[in-house]
Amino acid sequence: MAFINKFGLVLSVLLLLILGSAGIGIGLGMVDTNLVFTYVNDSHHKLIITQIGILLWIIGLLIIYTSCVLSQEEKGVAFRNANGEVRVTRKAIEDFIIRVCSQETNIRRIKPRVTIKKKYIKASLVIAITSDIPVTQAISELQVKIKESLEAGIGMVSVKAVTARVEEIFYTGGRLRGVEYTS
Question: What pLDDT, on the 0 to 100 scale, is given for residue 1?
């Protein structure tokens, strides 16, 4: 899914840059207007097309800038103590979540994915669960436990959200698939 989003972003930015370049070229007289548009010979139309081209360039550059800024992810949670700097990697945090969930008897399988930003972390979980109590209650309790465990166990970190996607629910009669919950 991330590949499709990035491909769409690149495609739309390229389209904006091409259209912007065409507009600038037409407006500044770099492109033969007789070949492209017969009605663009008016200087007022050229000015408007140039402005539209510059606007499309600005929008394309803003999209590139915001996608680069928003996609920056930290490699680990870092903080300083009296002895120096401590860095906890994403893999270590994911292992920590697996260890916390292994203490739960109703969790059959879990696959965590942690996103680390400068001021917070987010955990996304894919879960297979066996539940004697309602699934929403079991997942809510698990989300609270993971959030509290991360904040207490890792320390110096703020957990923004723990998102859970329940892919399988096992019970005595079989299993169900595909339920999503967010805390």
Answer: 43
